[in-house]
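The pair is quoted verbatim as follows:
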Amino acid sequence: MGKAQKYVLLGDATYPLQDWILKPYQEDKNLTQRQLQFNYRLKRAHSVIENAFLRLKARWQILLKCDDCSLELLPTLVLACCILHNVCEAHDNPFNEEWLEGTEPTELPKPCQPAPATMEDGRAEQVRELMCQYFESCGEG
């Protein structure tokens, strides 16, 4: 890859491809093995992230009731829970799997129709292609 890249967010197929949102290649297209591998790795990363948020919400169940606090307080509340969660994980504080009961993956609103093409599409495609090449160079995983 050789060139430092900006941070990106992971999106699924419903999000527009932007140079700051990585999304999988369309499954209905004739994909190369490299593109299939990219989609697989993106799906795995998304799964890890979803699991981390489930554990965070299970440990700090106040996050399940965030509609009880003001919008101004919400970022501080989430940050405090993240910091405390990481401290607990770093100190091997046991995670009780029973906490996960009633903590379902959150389905967030998604765009209801594809976003129109933008001027960013060419750059976004370049970023995705660079990441695809990078994943290929890392080997199986």
User: Anything to note?
Assistant: The helical segments are 33-59, 74-90, 121-137. Strands lie at 9-10, 21-22.
